[in-house]
Design brief:
about 350 residues; alpha/beta; Rossmann fold; 7-stranded parallel β-sheet; two-stranded parallel ribbon; 12 helices
Length: about 350
């Protein structure tokens, strides 16, 4: 039995109250879904600027009688943060303006949402005496650091306003732990993928975008030569990391930051090949178009890989081992949505 299995069993025996920000988004909705499946009481917060109502409806359809309250509100409003924090044991903070290119186009909004919004939540959590505040950081904080795999102590120069905002969140969390005793755990997500991730728009992540392109019969566009590498992580592993981080035994007033990834590098060319290999098994009638290369995207790092030794040792994190299978399962979900002509969800 894994530590995650034990954690889920303990939560089922002793349910808690959780606040999930960005609950209508890609990762947030998966967190809500798992918590409700475990019999937890959940409060969701989202302003639907990037989240999607269908995500929440899908979860509610699965668990119509579980204790779940969805609040429409903005983390930039302190009063809203105070209201939703009442009676909360654990916070899972996912709400963000989570796009490197969008932050370059609009750095002020990235700062307002990611920094001011997080600061509001930290203050509200401190005042409400929550047990622990777990928040989404990002591998973007490593910037131009070149030594791989990337370790939590590594630091480079940030390459985007988004990276600066996430680094600032980590520092504010550290200060709230030291100055006020609020327990905080930051999770530096690498390249997360899975069902409900937005395949549309110029800021879409590569996996949902390419899956939607392939099942539509179009040609995938690769930024650069395709040898850029990423550490692709299924959303189920991110859910695991959040629940472990929230409940792990630590000394009072703890502050930690952990990488959340698979601990492996995959090039964009390899990723395209894996998805192309999965397509005939998922949608046999669809043909594969050759990929098309274009210029590198501003603000992107060349290579990325997580060192996950810390989260494995401290939290008992066990990442998914089979990337090909996880990609194929994700493609099956998108194909079902595409065949049903459903609106595909936005990410948070």
């Amino acid at each position: 039995m894994t530590q995650y299995d034990r954690t889920k069993e303990e939560l089922q025996r002793s349910p808690k109250t959780w606040l999930v920000t960005g609950a209508a988004g890609f990762i947030g909705s998966h967190l809500v879904e798992t918590l409700l499946e475990l019999g937890q009481k959940v409060i969701g917060l989202d302003n639907y600027s990037t989240g999607y109502r269908r995500n929440v409806e899908e979860v509610q359809e699965r668990f119509p009688r579980r204790p779940f309250r969805m609040v429409e509100g903005d983390i930039r409003n302190l009063a809203t943060c105070v209201e939703v924090m009442r009676g909360v044991d654990y916070v899972l903070h996912e709400a963000a303006d989570a796009s490197v290119p969008r932050s370059i186009d609009d750095p002020l909004t990235a700062n307002e949402v990611n920094v001011v919004g997080t600061l509001n939540l930290l203050k509200a959590a401190r005042d409400a005496r929550v047990r622990r505040f777990v928040f989404a950081s990002s591998s973007a904080v490593y910037g131009d650091a070149e030594a791989l795999p990337l370790r939590e102590a590594d630091a480079g120069s940030p390459l985007s306003p988004y990276a600066v905002s996430k680094w600032t969140d980590e520092k504010y969390a550290e200060v709230f732990s030291r100055a006020f005793g609020l327990e905080t755990i930051g999770l530096r997500y690498f390249n997360v993928f899975g069902p409900r991730q937005d395949p549309n728009g110029s800021y879409a992540a590569v996996i949902p975008k390419w899956i939607h392109t392939m099942i539509s019969g179009a040609r995938c566009v690769v930024n650069g030569d395709g040898e850029t590498t990423r550490d692709f992580c299924p959303v189920s592993d991110v859910v695991q990391a959040n629940l472990l981080a929230a409940t792990a035994p630590f000394d009072p007033g703890v502050h930690r930051v952990y990488n959340v990834g698979a601990g492996r590098r995959t090039s964009l060319n390899e990723l395209h090949d894996m998805l192309a290999a999965a397509l005939p098994r998922v949608l046999p009638a669809q043909s594969i178009q050759p990929r098309q290369h274009q210029e590198f995207r501003a603000g992107d790092v060349r290579h990325s890989q997580a060192d996950i030794a810390g989260i494995v040792a401290d939290l008992g994190y066990t990442p998914t081992s089979d990337l090909r299978l996880a990609l194929e399962e994700t493609m099956r979900w998108y194909t079902i949505q595409w065949k049903a002509n459903l609106v595909l969800a936005r990410t948070a």
